[in-house]
Design brief:
By secondary structure, this protein is mainly beta. It has 1 helix and 19 strands. A hairpin with a 5-residue loop joins strand 1 and strand 2.
Amino acid sequence: MFQTNICLCPGCMRAALSSFDENKNILESDSYCYKHHPSPEKAKEEIYDYIKNHDKIIGLNANGLTFSGIDLTDKRFYGCSFQHCFFNGLVSTAFRSRMCSFDFSIFTDCNLLQSNMQFTSFAGSKFIHVLFTGSDMILDNFSGLQSIQSSFDDSNLYSSRFIKANLVNTSFKNCNVRKAVFLGIMHKNVSFNTSNTREAVFDENCYDLFSGDIYMTESSDGGSF
């Protein structure tokens, strides 16, 4: 897993950014968060360069950084932390993630097609115009997600959690949602067309509503459709 070192600045409880030795290897030593780092731009560029020059990335902490227009195609991340990050304009294929955290991050106008993410958390994150079409997203955490005009079509969402998610104009067409959990969600114009919804977990009074083309209408309490 990623290191959970706290920023060295007294009183700051933010996670520290990864630092590097002279050979550009990740250090496990204490450091500062981006806000309090004595050389924030240098720290940011070191992390950008590390991602650019490595296909397999383990234990990287990039909390609070902005990633715009970078290509993560075929990149493999293991035990990394990207909490509170901003991702914009990513166009990538076959992005892989294992046991990583993207909690409270924002993704806008991103294409992450055919991604493979397992045991990865997006709790409290926001997706705006994001495509995960054709992805394997197994045992992932999307609790508290805000998703607007985004697509998970043709994806495997086995045993993932969307508890108290707010889904607007979001598509789950032809998805495997076996053992996926959709409880307390708010929703408007969401499609589960041809997905195996009878094998997912929805609020108790919603079980008999998922057959054929199902378009959920907006619900204020997450309990009725």
